[in-house]
């Protein structure tokens, strides 16, 4: 989390940052929480107008994004009534609507099941030029990321391409490595499902 925040400070105008806590406005609708991701793109009057009388173009844009994340049926619901997984997807939608070149995500799919997580990560990657994710699920990291950076005790333990990842490198982080875990997609490397923090790119 600290590293991602530091990266964000380098190029805030080019980066869409999805933090671990959804930080939605509880009393506002899902629609308005998603729209808030674009507040900096418009002037005060335009934003105020869409708060009370959402314009058709804005409604369509938010609705299409919500549909792609399985949230289309909840656009009028207050954020506080959404489940944990729905709130996380709402926060992701608020980040995606920013349409920035770079995406930073701090556990952006931790509250959803694995099938949804795969779909969401695929959408994140397809929507941005560069993606940096902090994940605890190494299987997802190996499947969707090109480069793996592993941190242990605040120090760099691994920095390699996915194709170069092997069990010896993983043992630098996981002293209690379980060789019975599922293997990665690119080789026969055992992959722990819920490791310590791993930064993937």
Question: What is the strand and helix layout of this fold?
Answer:
Layout: H1 2-10, E1 15-18, H2 30-35, H3 44-52, H4 56-68, H5 84-96, E2 102-106, H6 114-126, E3 130-135, H7 138-144, E4 147-152, E5 155-161, H8 167-171, E6 198-200
Parallel strand pairs: 1-2, 2-3
Antiparallel strand pairs: 3-6, 4-5, 4-6
Describe what this molecule looks like in 3D.
The structure is a single chain. With 201 residues, the chain is of the alpha/beta class. Helix content is 37%, strand content 15%. A six-stranded mixed sheet has the order 1-2-3-6-4-5, with helices on both faces. Helix 6 links the parallel strand 2 and strand 3. It starts with a helix and ends with a strand.
User: Roughly what fraction of the amino acids lie in strands?
Assistant: 15-25%
The largest sheet has its strands arranged as: 1-2-3-6-4-5
Distance between the termini: 14 Å
Structural class computed from helices and strand pairing: alpha/beta
What's the main sheet like? 6 strands, mixed
> Mean pLDDT, nearest integer?
85
Radius of gyration: 18 Å
SSE series: HEHHHHEHEHEEHE
Q: Work out the number of β strands.
A: 6
Number of helices: 8
Instruction: Based on Cα principal axes, name the global outline.
Output: elongated
Unreliable runs: 176-198
Helix coverage percent: 25-40%
